Amino acid sequence: MLGPLILAASRSDKMRKIVSAAPVTKPVVNRFIPGETVDQVIPIVADLSQKGLEVTLDVVGEDITTVEQSYAARDAYLELIEHLKELELGEKAEMSVKLSMFGQSLEGGHELALANVRPVVEAAAAIGTTVTLDAEDHTTLDSMFAIHEELRKDFPQTGCVIQAYLFRTEADARRLAAAGSRVRIVKGAYKEPASVAYQDKAEIDKAYVRILKTLMDGEGYPMIGSHDPRLIAITQELARTAGRKLDEYEFQMLYGIRSEEHLRLAAEGHRMRVYTAYGTDWYGYFMRRLAEKPANLLFFVRSMITKN
To answer: What is the pTM of this model?
Structure first.
């Protein structure tokens, strides 16, 4: 029940100021966001890679209001790619982008976002890695999928994200479960109305499994974004039933959540990718992490209470 309230707060400037000003906020944020600059996050990437983990990197800050900010977002990713090139990490470190950060919600936003993200995808391909387009609220998805389709004409390894709580997603999954596709499935972390999305957790979980089966039975490359032990076990069973090898799908989890599970899955031979965000505009990302799981909120509240 708290999740929708927290998601609403993620869009509130007043709550942004309150949370940002709280003395204990920054130490707790650091659990989920390990740095504000590329120089701070690159050592994290190297460390995770040495532990046998792969990474997807997200420069946070989707709520932009000007064209100039969209260019700055593009340039931030291009700077990140230059650093990854120096590390020669290749496919060990890909990138996740939110098209709203590239100007999707501005006037002429579809064309602007495509123009901004294309050089990022091209630069990523040049160093042997790729980009996944994150899913945002349901009003943005037709544009996101159209941009994904356009980018795949030249860069077929470009991935996208689908959200199990949306009614439309089962049809999207059937369309995307084709040879060469890379699709991350998540439960969903935006406040969506009952007209377009399941509101009950049990129904979301059931939809997740149905969609996951579609992806596993298809010819693409499923990327399972979940920390749920039950869904992880179901994934392994569906993969075995579909005859998939361990390198024909991967798990993805957030930096700072269930870190021991990251290592356990990697030790078992699974591809395990850690979603690692960094940047100064962390508020929206942080609040969605609190909304996703009550334990995250309890961790934050407990820190506020006990902090001297």
So the answer is: 0.87
